Amino acid sequence: MFRTNPGRVLIVDDEINTLKASATILKMNGFSDVVTESDSRRVLDAMKAGGVDVVMLDLFMPHISGMELLPLLREQYPQVPVIIVTAAYELERAVECIRSGAFDYLVKPVEPERMMITLQKAFECSTLHDQVASLRDHLVEDRLDHPDVFEDIVSCSRKMRSVFQYLEVIAKSPQPVLITGESGTGKELVARAIHRLSGCRGELVSVNLAGLDDTMFSDTLFGHKKGAFTGADQIREGLIVKASKGVILLDEIGDLGESSQIRLLRLIQEREFYPVGSDTPRKSETRIVCASHKNLKELVAQGRFRNDLFYRLNVHHVELPPLRSRKEDIPLLLEHFIRQAAKALAISPPSYPKELLDLLAIYHFPGNVRELQGIVFDAVARSKAGKLSQEPFRQVMTDSRTQIAVPTASGTPGQDPRLGMLEEVWGHFPTLREAESFLIDYALKASQGNQGTAATMLGLKRQTLNMRLKAKEQRK
Predict the structure, then answer these.
(1) Which of 14, 218, 321, 464 is 20 to 30 A from residue 211's alpha carbon, by CA?
(2) pLDDT digits (tens, 9 = 90+) for 280-312
(3) Is residue 1 part of a domain?
(4) 335, 323, 416: which is closest to 362 by C-alpha?
(5) For residue 66, how many C-alpha atoms fall within 13 Å in the half-sphere facing its CB?
(6) What is the dihedral sign for C-alpha 118, 121, 127, 128?
(7) pLDDT above 90 covers what percent of the chain?
(8) Cis peptide before 109 (omega within 30 of 0)
(9) Does residue 245 contact residue 202 with C-beta atoms inside 8 Å?
């Protein structure tokens, strides 16, 4: 049920046989760091030694009872969950302990499955407490402990820095990470950063799930045994094995079929999988990171994505902002991609006019950082005499413009609320001349007076804009 070394457990009980039995159950379920103590007088010293993540505390013991130890533990170590272990006839006292801050209680004789479920919840609570405290420290101090990990993500944005701080906090957690954001925002780069921060010894393995049917999904991730199907003439290890003790990035998770979603849910919950054609499960120690440009909540609402899988994947959620909401990064990215393209072409990085930054600042970048990279690489390849032309950028921006129809509720003009807004601005429905004048003024203001940039915003050639400006002056 657990990964190796989920944390340290301190078991306190005056009955030696109970201690041994409990420790054995824990070690059989993946805990290698179990500390036992039969003398309640030594518990606080064991806690001072540090490293304890969860305490299992017997309620009645000689010398100092669990009832007496609990308030001391809650006062001195409030971040450590305490699970009370009690006999059936002591349930009233156990409930009293819950009210005093105990995490949960177990009734003797403790069922192994119940013990493991309770411990799992306690560790999740402890991990969440540590993450919240760490995130608070990172944000208050505006701290990045490993800035070198994010060197591949070019940014000076406050939004992106907050993402980096969050990644440092959650990277070592064994729970899945869900990365969402529009195409081209850098989800794979974030997965690489998680892998580097996680401390996982294995490699990072990426797989795009778009286009994989349920059979291909199982074979790709879990592999197959010899003879599993026609053509399976030898054993094949899947990507889960390849990413063992590492990280696997499941890209485009929103495209996963229903049967594949069930198999993935089992992998996450049970930490085990079945190769195709095999009846014997195999254990997995792979950290799971998922990415999607789709809104998974909407897919859940539409019945296309399992609700239980969504909440298992959404333990840690990283939402990447689009480039249009962090335009302060555009100058850095432009310089970076120019150098990158020039190196690939074995030429000196070309210079560019200052007006290019004004032009890029008004563009909405539907393809985000990846789109900017492609435009820059094309422009560098077409550059002459060591100078970058604005024309490739203008061409892309003009081509991406779309004509938006203004619908009405019944097809009758004047009923659309947006048309009503126009009437509010002028006090009447604007004429074409009034609307044109307004748009020209607005574009010039947004482009800081740069007529070339304003013309691009309006979908005009610069000469056409000049003619309309002259006509506008003559009408005054």
Answers:
(1) 321
(2) 889 898 999 999 999 999 999 999 999 999 999
(3) no
(4) 323
(5) 29
(6) negative
(7) 46
(8) yes
(9) yes
Tokens for 391? 């024309």
**Residue for token digits 């013991």?**
61
CA 5 to chain centre: 24
Same domain, 253 and 301: yes
Average pLDDT over residues 361-369: 91
Q: What is the CATH number of the domain that holds 108?
A: 3.40.50.2300
Q: Which residues contact 413 (CB under 8 A, 6 or more apart)?
A: 419
Q: What is the pLDDT of residue 428?
A: 64
Which pLDDT score is estimated for 414? 43
Query: In this structure, are 215 and 117 located in the same domain?
Result: no
Domain that holds residue 164: 144-321
Angle at 123 between CA 174 and CA 95, to 5 degrees: 160
Extended beta strands in 173-292, E state: 177-180, 204-208, 223-224, 236-237, 247-251, 272-273, 282-283, 287-292
Tokens at 379, concatenated: 């422009």
Residue 95 or 54, more confident: 54
Question: Which percentage of the chain shows pLDDT scores above 70?
Answer: 89
Q: Please name the residue that has the structure tokens 């007496």.
A: 68
Q: Are 304 and 266 in contact (CB under 8 A)?
A: no
> Are 431 and 475 in contact, with CB atoms under 8 Å apart?
no
DSSP assigned state of 324: G
Q: Measure the CA–CA gap between 330 and 155, rounded to whole angstroms.
A: 9
Angle at 222 between CA 216 and CA 226, to 5 degrees: 90
Is beta strand 9-12 parallel, antiparallel or unpaired with respect to 34-37?
parallel
State the Cα–Cα distance between residues 393 and 338, nearest whole angstrom.
Answer: 13
Alpha-carbon distance of 244 to 373, in angstroms, equals: 33
CA atoms within 13 A on the CB side of 279: 0
Q: Residue 104: how many CA atoms within 13 Å on its side-chain side? A: 15
Strand bridging mode 287-292 / 177-180: parallel
